[in-house]
Design brief:
The protein has 213 residues and is mainly beta. The chain is built from one helix and ten strands. It has an eight-stranded antiparallel barrel with strand order 1-2-3-4-5-6-7-10. The radius of gyration is 23 Å and the shape is elongated.
Length: 213
């Protein structure tokens, strides 16, 4: 009985050391995450018309934040996103390539649901401003669009404490509302369009690291 009680006490103590961590209030955090995703799809119809679609996405997101309380952090971030899509039709010999470069900066707050654990579930609302340069090139045309945009959104996150000074970070999907101001090569006017996006694709996953100073 005494051995069993001692074993249970040791197990509880080890579990507490595994999950408990104190949030260093007032400290600054620097970090970032990046992601890479590529996809290829082929399809052939009844007339042997073969279509090949390729898509590649890369993004990087450095940031600086300050720990305000046990559950809240405030910060500012930059983001670069590159997407290249290619569409080939073998029957008519057409090829279409779309390149999309996105540059943005903004502010965020991060809420931690269980800050005393090593593995912390988080939600990060954010506001961004930036611009997008899109190029659409095919056999006959070569168009370029420039978009200014303002966005609001939120993304779920997880944080794992490797040490008191180092966290591993994961971002998985996001929900955004974006207002775009679009200018094209075809005319001098500017169009405005609004959109709501909900993404949980592989291209929205980002893995990174952050340091507590």
């Amino acid at each position: 009985m005494k051995k069993t009680t001692l074993f249970v006490l040791m197990l509880v103590a080890s579990s507490s050391s595994l999950f408990a961590q104190d949030m260093p209030l007032g400290k600054y955090v620097i970090g970032g995450n990046l992601g890479f995703y590529t996809d290829r799809n082929e399809s052939t119809n009844s007339t042997n018309n073969k279509t090949i679609n390729k898509s590649t996405n890369f993004h990087i997101n450095p940031y600086v934040g300050k720990i305000l309380s046990e559950k809240w952090m405030f910060g500012t971030s930059l983001n670069y996103n590159l997407t290249v899509s290619k569409f080939n039709n073998t029957l008519i010999g057409s090829e279409n390539k779309i390149t999309r470069n996105s540059f943005q900066g903004g502010v965020f707050v991060r809420y931690s649901y269980n800050p005393k654990n090593k593995l912390v579930l988080q939600l990060m609302p954010f506001a961004n401003v930036g611009f997008i340069v899109s190029k659409n090139k095919n056999n006959t045309t070569d168009d370029k669009n420039e978009n200014l945009f303002v966005g609001l959104g939120a993304t779920p996150m997880v944080s794992y404490s490797v040490s008191p000074k180092v966290n591993l970070i994961g971002r998985f999907g996001q929900a955004t509302f974006v207002s775009e101001f679009v200018k094209t090569d075809d005319y001098d006017g500017i169009d405005n369009k609004n959109s709501f996006n909900l993404s949980f694709s592989l291209s929205s996953i980002g893995i990174g690291i952050e340091l507590i100073l």
